[in-house]
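S1.2 Input.
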Amino acid sequence: MNKGFGVTVTVPQPDGQEPKTAPLVVVARDERDAELVAAQAAGPQASAETLRELTDEEVLAYDLDLQAHGSAKVLPILNL
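S1.3 Output.
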């Protein structure tokens, strides 16, 4: 069964600039799967870290479809 997870993704930038980090919510089977989904969505050099599993209320608030494995939404701010 899929669950919702809060994840941060870090994407390296060209020319030695600071990497960019973005918060996402993703639908995945477990924490490791959530990290893989998020990193794939962000690009080949991205890395991801799962912060935590979302509550049922958060899944509803972010309008996540738990049947849609691999779906991800970028958050404007980290509010997990």
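S1.4 Remarks. The chain has a mean pLDDT of 92.
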